Batch of 3 targets.
Target 1
Amino acid sequence: MDKAQLLLYCPDKPGIIAQVTNFITVNKGNIVYLDQHVDHVENIFFMRIEWELDQFLIPKEKIDDYFHTLYAQKYEMVYRLYFSNQKPRMAIFVSKLSHCLYDLLSRYTAGEWQVELPLIISNHPDLEPVAQRFGIPYYVFPITAENKAQQEQEEMRLLAENRINFIVLVRYMQVISDRMIDAYPNRIINIHHSFLPAFVG
């Protein structure tokens, strides 16, 4: 059954949950998951909600427009809308150490995650045999202080060509620039391999 999933955050105000759930139920959507959280320090409201689309009155291709016009502008929401029959496209960044990469690729091939994995990017060639074993294209961009900006530009071009939705840093031993972070806001996951904040790396 096709489902829609909405992730959003915005300044916390009364009535947000009621408005969003009403938008779904009035249009005959069946809510199957809802989670929310308020960051009281920053006064930011976070919400994740999922609903079935088989009886939903708004056509799938129009949901984004309706929601943006009716609610997102009013509540200053930043949001993303996903559909269960559309898998997000993930890129992995890795350096030399293999154990985290093996874990992710094993879970991916076992079907634990509903994602597509078009490529792996590295600053070293060491783990290319691992990528080949799993049938994932592997791209090497050696990085020095002198060429870092240029290489990152090439990485971003490759990500755009492959329509990447989010990035996972898997023991990637480089600091990501603000430019790349701005290109993928809230869509970069860093798997940190030591205890924080004691060992920040």
Target 2
Amino acid sequence: MTTGGHDIVSVIKEQIKQFGTTVTMVDVGTVVEVGDGVARIHGLRGARYNELLQFPNDIMGLALNLEEDNVAAVILGDCSHIREGDEVRSTGRVVEVPVGDELIGRVVDPLGNPLDELGPIKATKTRPVERVAPNVVMRQPVNTPVHTGIKIIDALIPIGRGQRELIIGDRSIGKSAIAIDTIISQKGGDLICIYVAIGQKTSKVAQVIDILNKYGAMEHTVVVTANASEPAPLQYLAPYSGCAIGEEFM
């Protein structure tokens, strides 16, 4: 088969039209020291405070200490898989979590990764876990009660939407039971509940989820959990993530 010169030129022109290049610039650093859940990284000159960093094996880190010639980051995962010399990439994103109705009924970690084996969370919006709180003057007044389902509480010390309430007590006297009963009592209403478990045993969290499923309360609940076996940075982020998820429904 013989191809004429005109055909060759046409083929080359067509290939040139289809040729496309996408150049992506990524700030890259190298791990020079790792231990106790903290990695020290050489490079990453463009890293920002609270920026997420990508380590090998899909492990994320959080840049906290920005020095002139290195960056110290806490590791949001198992640091035993990270070695000196590993490549670290900046993501250009501060710590954020997915938010929206897609999280209702799901169990997630403080980074918004699903833990309930129900598939990926197809959220279209995210919110940073740390943000400036709304000015007090701009907030709505507390004028709508939250019925806990416990008559003595609703009668003597009623709780309002937008109000903070601290439950204090010794171990194993029913603090979590009050919170769980309150969540269950919201079934059929328009109140979204966020249950954040920090430093608890995995079995304890599983029991709570089973109770919520049993009474149909997961239909209006999001569970954020950082168990006792999780790294300290994830436990630190858990309450911030829970607040960020809840603020989206306000």
Target 3
Amino acid sequence: MRASVAALLVLLFNCCAVAHAEVVNVYTSANFAPLVINHARGIYVDLVEHLNQQRLGDLTFKLTYLPRKRLQMKLEQGSMDGIVIGMMPQWLDDVGQKKYLWTAPFAVDRFVLVSRTGSGIDPNAAVSVSGRSIGLVLGYVYPGIDEWIARYGLVRNDALSEDINLEKLRLGRVDCVAVAESVARYYLKTHALSDQFQLADLPGQQTERRFLIPHSKAAVYDKLAPVIRRLKDDPVWQRSASKYQ
């Protein structure tokens, strides 16, 4: 009898725990390496898994893909039912960080110009890039780079993702590509192309990848923000992230 009562109490406890658990959708529009690789691994996938291992109260994080236009629409309409990974205040006209809650950066990147070795393309020489086609991601805003493109007269050629642009460059369908350095180096390394392409710095700020949290999810922010601040000193996370460098 006592065993039956004990088993019943354990069952009730587990049911209550499940009932109180909150699944937090972590949205991303990234579908390219090394951020997301085949929906199974990558920096974003590993980071969400790492957060779940931290056992942040009753929160369970779930990475969910959402096309950029739909993500933007949800943010503008105030209907975002989760948080967003890998965003930057400048991309959403929120430099003052008033529209949304922002964590500390969990990764710092920068944009580079990728072109074929020997192509003569130099981002600091207008004559070498004027009229050239540059691969960018459809719908993306590039602070500092957009102004450089207009000033130097490059022709924007959009694709759905950064790795598609790099593939177009490999096939000779664009002259150069503006892409995050981490993405470029991972692509060139995995395709053994490092000796065929060159990277050059582009104007603009560094890319600080952060979590965006709507004010309606302030309770999630309060639990998440301290963990993100500590990632730079977290050896487990640093080992995981180093796989994609």
